[in-house]
Amino acid sequence: MKRLLVSSGAGPAECRLAVAHALRRLGAEAEEAGLDFAAVEGPRPDDWGPVSALATLYGEGAEILARRWLGTILWTAESPARPHHKRRNWFIGVHESPEIPQAPLLDLADLRFEAFRAGGPGGQHQNVTDSAVRAVHLPTGLSVVAREERSQHRNKAAALARLGEMLMGQAVLAAASARRKDWLAHKSLERGAPVRRFKGPRFQPEA
Question: Which of 31, 41, 100, 178 is 20 to 30 Å from 3 by CA-CA measure?
Fold first, then answer.
């Protein structure tokens, strides 16, 4: 498992939109790698995107994928929020996540579990039973998937634990936003050599 904090720092709406784009891109790359992915967003001051988010990668290869994202991300695009704005470079940061406190016990009445068939990338190690589990927290709409185990019972337990972590992560993000000056990951972004570069309204990776 690898947990990442994706932050717009003190950037404007365009940086918050870049956070939203980065989450979708990271989720897609996780799926291509056969990893489970879950994300919880922090507060949204407007419709452009969250100030920050916690993204969690589960499975073998999570560390490798996470390393590709750690550092500063550059998005080059015309501002969708402010037409004719001269600035075209928007920076966000991806950091190792702070530790999350132990998750509370969840009320089963607030949960929905869905079983489905799991398969690895390229069809390898595919399970022949509906052993993968999606857990949904009905009050918040948060959902996570667990498919690493061959037992549906074990995947259900893993999904429940992950959901608890995501709910605690939501509280961590809210608290960090309230005292942003005390959380360096939200205050500063190194704008030197970006580790990843994306361009255009579709957040396409640069070659």
Answer: 178
